[in-house]
Amino acid sequence: MVSSVTVHTAALLVLVVIFCSWSYVAAEGEDCCLATTNKKIPARLVKSYFLQTTSMGCRTAATVFTTKMNKKLCAPLPKNKNWVQGLINKLNKKSKKTRKSKGKKQ
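C-alpha cells predicted for C-C motif chemokine 19-like:
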C-alpha cells in the first residue's frame, strides 16, 4: 500500500520538473537565436558581436550582432559565410582603434 505522503512527494517532484523545463525553454527563447538569416547586415548599424554556441545552452550556433539601437541580429557562423567574417573583422579593427585611443588619453 502506498502512503499518501509518497504520492504527494511524487506529485510535487513532477511539478518541480515541469516548472524547471518551462523556465529553461523561456530562458532559451529570450537569450538564444532560434534561427539565422543570410541577409547581409550593414556595418554602419552594428556596434558589437558575440558567437552563440550550443555549449551556452542554445540549440543553434550563430553569430549575434548587436546594433547601435541594441537589437540582436542572428547571422550564420563566420566559417559558413564570408560576409559575416568580414563584418567581424571590421568590428575587431574598430575595437582595437578605440582601445588604443583610450590608452593614449590616460
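The chain has two domains: 1-31, 33-105.
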